[in-house]
Amino acid sequence: MSGSSSVATMKKVVQQLWLEAGLNRVKVSQAAADVKQFCLQNARHDPLLTGVSSSTNPFRPQKVCSFL
């Protein structure tokens, strides 16, 4: 039993390796250039770069009820 299950496992591993070998890969330099371009194009929408006004900030400290 053990021998046939290890053969089946190894066949699955080989099949997965064949699938991965057939993938089209992007060079790291090209991927980095794409990420940089995306960041530059979307910088004006990034709240970490542009900031968030206090009126629209959902994480601002809540006001305390002062009439008690």
Number of strands: 0
Note the gap between the termini. 75 Å
- Along the chain, the helix and strand elements come as HHH
User: Rough shape?
Assistant: elongated
Number of helices: 3
Q: Spans of 5+ residues with little confidence (pLDDT < 50)?
A: none
Portion of residues within helices: 55-70%
For the largest beta-sheet, the strand count, sense and barrel status come to:
none
Quaternary structure annotation: single chain
Radius of gyration: 26 Å
Mean pLDDT: 87
Computed structural class? mainly alpha
Strand content: under 5%
Ordered list of secondary-structure elements with their pairings:
Blueprint: H1 2-21, H2 28-41, H3 47-50
Structure description:
One of its GO terms (molecular function) is G-protein beta-subunit binding. One of its GO terms (cellular component) is heterotrimeric G-protein complex. Residues 3-68 form the G protein gamma domain. The model has no long low-confidence stretch (mean pLDDT 87). This protein is elongated. The chain has a domain at 24-50. It starts with a helix and ends in an 18-residue tail after the last helix. It has helices at 2-21, 28-41, 47-50. The chain has 68 residues and is mainly alpha-helical. It is built from three helices and no strands. 56% of the residues lie in helices and 0% in strands.
Task: Give the tags.
single chain; 68 residues; mainly alpha; 3 helices
Short characterization:
The chain has 68 residues and is mainly alpha-helical. It is built from three helices and no strands.
